[in-house]
Amino acid sequence: MKIHRKRFGQHFLHDTQIIQDIVAAIAPHPQEHLVEIGPGKGALTLPLLESGCQLDVIELDRDLIEWLKKTAKNQNLRIYNADALKFDFKTLLIDKRRIVGNLPYNISTPLLFHLLNYASNIEEMTFMLQKEVVDRMIAVPCTHDYGRLSVMLQYYCQIEKLFDVSPAAFYPPPKVESSVVQLRPFLSPPVLVKNREHFAKIVALAFSQRRKMLRNTLKKVFDAKDIEAAGIDPMARAETLRLEDFARLADNYRDYI
């Protein structure tokens, strides 16, 4: 059965060795309850079910859902026809659970931000993503890839890039390389932040025009003296700041609302 819809950003994983490597990285346990986003044609779904785990999958494409139902025929599989960007994961994350998936590349960044809302209910996430996105996730200050995604994910999660995957592992092959990454939400964040909404706001503002100085990108909430009071050079750019720098700025933000 040939199913491919460009509007869903579908690229189906078919390389058996890569599939085995991802399943080995997930290491599912019998009776464990996992959540999969974007099962597609079951490249990960079917081997995960073979482990004896219980699997909730979220799929937007109704044609693929029908294909999965006919192919899997497994009582441990529950399928939700939904948009993962709008899905309320609390309905599935009753206990701390692990989430897996070959995420659609056209929505991967907003989907990662959406999942951060449920970080306290997630034990681990194992995803296949565009390599460029993973490089941004693990980037350090003063590098080209360091940005809002780096800061926010590193505040919430320990991140480990596992391995790269070539376009040849998919049908149709994407025009980009992919990577497999694991994220483990922290029990306690690496820096203390009094208000996470303020933290997210400051990070977003600081990187809204990444080549501009902080005194310009943050002028709606701080003047140069306020930035200096937080121990930060107002002429610095966001890409030079560490997590703790953003935390200090965020903790002062309450005075300017």
TrEMBL record:
Catalytic activity: adenosine(1518)/adenosine(1519) in 16S rRNA + 4 S-adenosyl-L-methionine = N(6)-dimethyladenosine(1518)/N(6)-dimethyladenosine(1519) in 16S rRNA + 4 S-adenosyl-L-homocysteine + 4 H(+)
UniProt keywords, alphabetically: Cytoplasm, Methyltransferase, RNA-binding, rRNA processing, S-adenosyl-L-methionine, Transferase
PROSITE patterns, sorted: RRNA_A_DIMETH, SAM_RNA_A_N6_MT
Entry binding sites for S-adenosyl-L-methionine: 11, 13, 38, 59, 83, 102
Pfam family, one: RrnaAD
EC numbers: 2.1.1.182
Gene Ontology molecular function terms on file: 16S rRNA (adenine(1518)-N(6)/adenine(1519)-N(6))-dimethyltransferase activity; RNA binding
Similarity annotation: Belongs to the class I-like SAM-binding methyltransferase superfamily. rRNA adenine N(6)-methyltransferase family. RsmA subfamily.
NCBIfam families linked: ksgA
Function: Specifically dimethylates two adjacent adenosines (A1518 and A1519) in the loop of a conserved hairpin near the 3'-end of 16S rRNA in the 30S particle. May play a critical role in biogenesis of 30S subunits.
Protein name (record): Ribosomal RNA small subunit methyltransferase A
Organism, scientific name: Candidatus Thiomargarita nelsonii
